[in-house]
């Protein structure tokens, strides 16, 4: 039996439980993380093992894949026109980089983690122009039993398993959080529909 410190924590736990029950009712099946990249590529909602992907607000304008929950976004895609509104200066820079085949600012994620490099294929360039993909270059730090902050090793695995088959650019956690927050504020979107977890929780 959980011991709750205050009424706000009780309410939070109840909201999470309700979300889980709704997920069970709609029959969202938990899938293995190594198979989740297909869902990320298609920008479809999925529930993995301590991971999930969500079309934010169901608007088809922003998609985020998370490790454990909203505290650590792994991959983020945003519609190109939406990105122009949210980050006009940066969108202009990205547009200029496209003229140089995306090689000035865009990176192949496969290079970053040591996988085989994906070539400059037309289909990747076409998809890239629909909107940029970003990945979180920062570790997910958690405290060990002695209270020391250490990178969560499983988040590195999530990063490998969920990677989209597209060009992605490195950003840090703060950048991704702010982009998501600005998007949600614009469309009056609250919490994600999926349940967040902390490392060690099931």
Notes on the protein architecture:
The protein has 8 helices and 8 strands, in the order ααββββααααβββαβα. Strands 1-2-3-4-5-8 form a 6-stranded mixed sheet. It has a two-stranded antiparallel sheet with strand order 6-7. It is of the alpha+beta class and 202 residues long. It folds into 2 domains: 1-29; 31-187, no CATH class. The protein is globular and about 50 Å long. Mean pLDDT is 80; it is low at 22-26 and 101-128.
Short note summarizing the structure:
39% of the residues lie in helices and 16% in strands.
What's the topology here?
Elements: H1 7-25, H2 37-42, E1 46-47, E2 51-55, E3 62-67, E4 73-78, H3 80-86, H4 88-99, H5 109-112, H6 122-128, E5 133-136, E6 141-143, E7 149-151, H7 153-161, E8 169-171, H8 173-187
């Amino acid at each position: 039996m959980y011991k709750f410190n205050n009424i706000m924590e009780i309410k939070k736990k109840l909201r999470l439980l309700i979300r889980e029950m709704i997920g069970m009712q709609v029959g969202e099946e938990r899938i293995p993380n190594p198979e989740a990249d297909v869902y990320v590529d298609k920008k479809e909602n999925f529930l993995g093992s301590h991971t999930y992907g969500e079309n934010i607000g169901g608007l088809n304008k922003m998609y985020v894949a998370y490790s454990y929950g909203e505290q650590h976004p792994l991959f983020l895609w945003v519609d190109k026109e939406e990105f122009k509104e949210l980050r006009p200066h940066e969108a202009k820079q990205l547009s200029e980089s496209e003229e140089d085949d995306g090689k000035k600012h865009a990176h192949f994620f496969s290079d970053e983690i040591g996988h085989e490099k994906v070539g400059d294929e037309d289909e990747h360039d076409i998809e890239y122009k629909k909107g940029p993909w970003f990945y979180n270059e920062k570790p997910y730090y958690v405290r060990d039993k002695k209270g020391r902050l250490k990178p969560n090793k499983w988040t590195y695995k999530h990063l490998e398993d969920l990677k989209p088959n597209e060009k992605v650019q490195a950003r840090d956690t703060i950048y991704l959080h702010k982009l998501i927050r600005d998007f949600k504020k614009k469309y009056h979107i609250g919490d994600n529909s999926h349940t967040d977890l902390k490392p060690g929780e099931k």
